[in-house]
Amino acid sequence: MENQNDFGDFEEVKYEENISENSEEPIPTRIRLPRGKELIGRIVQRFGGNRMDIKSTDGKVRNCRVPGRYRRRLWLRPKDIVIIIPWEFDDGKGDIIYKYRPIEITILNKKGLLNTIKDEF
């Protein structure tokens, strides 16, 4: 039998207990929050390709795109909550870098981070 130390040091990921027994996915205790110039936004409309309008927490609607390295990883639909980075030279545009899962969205709602982008559909 192999010793646990043979594989190196790993940080244990901790999850809170499931509130309901029907849910299969554990509730994460840590979620990704915007850093620096990043903003949280809600997808308002898709234009095709990898472009879409996103209403961000600063009140602006930006035309954002999915960069090439995230294109196959992010499957986005209207009403999804995402993290965007506004462009430095054009504040009306930006890049999408992360999509929140439904459990993470409920945690963001509890923290009050999504109050400025209420659902307008």
Could you characterize what this model shows?
This protein starts with 14 loop residues before the first strand and ends in a 10-residue tail after the last helix. The chain is built from 1 helix and 7 strands, in the order βββββββα. It has a 5-stranded mixed β-barrel. A two-stranded antiparallel sheet has the order 1-2. The longest helix has 10 residues, at 102-111. It has one helix at 102-111; strands spanning 15-16, 27-28, 39-48, 51-56, 61-65, 81-86, 93-99. The protein has 121 residues and is mainly beta. 8% of the residues lie in helices and 31% in strands. It is globular and about 40 Å long. It has one domain: OB fold (Dihydrolipoamide Acetyltransferase, E2P) (Beta Barrel).
Overall average residue pLDDT: 79
Q: What structural category characterises the helix and strand content? A: mainly beta
Secondary structure tally, helices: 1
**Helical proportion, percent range:** under 10%
Q: What percentage of amino acids are in beta strands?
A: 25-35%
Q: Which term fits the overall shape? A: globular
- The CATH architecture name reads Beta Barrel
Number of domains in the coordinates? 1
> Mind summarizing the main beta sheet?
5 strands, mixed, barrel
Name the CATH class.
Mainly Beta
Spatial separation of the terminal alpha carbons: 57 Å
Give a count of the beta strands, DSSP E runs of length 2 or more: 7
The largest beta-sheet arranges its strands as 3-4-5-7-6
- Unreliable runs: none
Q: CATH topology, anyone?
A: OB fold (Dihydrolipoamide Acetyltransferase, E2P)
Task: Write the element-wise H/E pattern from the N-terminal end onward.
Answer: EEEEEEEH
Radius of gyration: 18 Å
CATH superfamily: Nucleic acid-binding proteins
